[in-house]
# Entry
Amino acid sequence: MQNSYYADLPVLVTGGLGFLGSNLILELVKLGARVTVLDAMLPLYGGNFFNLEPVKNQVKVVLGDIRDGEKVKSCLKGQKLVFHIAGQTSHVDSMTDPLLDIDINCRGNMIFFLACLEECPDARIVYAGTRGQYGKLKYTPVDEEHPMDPSDIYGINKMAGEKYFLLLGQKRGMAVTSLRINNTYGPRHQMKHGKYGILNWFVRLAMDGQALPVFGEGSQLRDYNYIDDVTAAFLLAGEREEAIGEVFNLGCGEPVTFRRMVEMIVAQAGSGTINTVPWPEERKQIEVGDYVADFSKIERLLGWRPQASLTQGLDKTIAYYRQYKEHYWAG
Ligand SMILES: NC(=O)c1ccc[n+]([C@@H]2O[C@H](COP(=O)([O-])OP(=O)(O)OC[C@H]3O[C@@H](n4cnc5c(N)ncnc54)[C@H](O)[C@@H]3O)[C@@H](O)[C@H]2O)c1
# Structure
């Protein structure tokens, strides 16, 4: 399946061995793009060579860190589009090791952006932002005008990264877009620990027949996106003129309580149990309450709408990990 915009387009994907990046790359390759991947394979995160197994002979993989300016520059030469997805991804770790989060999500982002200005000023950049940038909510559904008041270091630094890109992009004439991504689940997520990507982790616990912990009543609303819908949003953000200079929320239109999500996983996996436990202190500190996204802006400007229901997404997710478990379970 070729697409005239992506066919033969030189594209760099940072963090491309991880969850969001690898799923995007599989589609980019189908569309005919010439893909380079930059990933540091840092052990805490979701980098996994198996994620790119189906296209391993069709993409160029460079092992390197976004904080290494020279390596970054060598990857950026000649690129027309950059999906900048690499980052420190754990809310919890950002509180226990804030300096690492600053180093990757602030310093690393600045090194990366300055290199973009030098090597490919005409390229478009799509930044992976997060709903965590909003923090404690003043109203819901959350639109893009909602104040950003992050409740953890990760949210603060992801917000700073977005602002660096948008500000410098505007001042230096680069075409930048940010997607404020929601909780996303599906194939190719790391399944080694539950520090981030909790729905994916719970799929593992259920498949292993273990107890899935629900903190308190589990009544907080969540808005989960299936990975294919997030990939579709990246592709539109990288292609459409209307996306330039904009930030967009993603959402699913089918919010559920945390407890309901857990019940669905246990039912669809056919194993696992639910264990109600008190809120651990480190989670209570960073919990933001109900989160429901207003994604009408991306729907209006780019025509994006989530397609997968939670039931459909969970079915595909469980089927994938049943088939490829040995590539994801090992620590
Ligand atoms: N998955 C979600 O639900 C979600 C939600 C909101 C935002 N995001 C953002 O999307 C991005 C990717 O998330 P993911 O779920 O794919 O995570 P992931 O851990 O699966 O992938 C991240 C990838 O980035 C790489 N990486 C990390 N630091 C790097 C560095 N300094 N240099 C080069 N590579 C580095 C890792 O090796 C990994 O392969 C993150 O920036 C995260 O903040 C994700």
Summary: The mean pLDDT is 95. The pocket of nicotinamide-adenine-dinucleotide is lined by residues 14-15, 17-21, 39-42, 45-47, 65-67, 85-87, 89, 104, 108, 128, 130, 158, 181, 183-184, 190, 197 (CB under 6 Å). The chain has eleven helices and 13 strands. The CA atoms of residues 16 and 22 lie 5 Å apart.
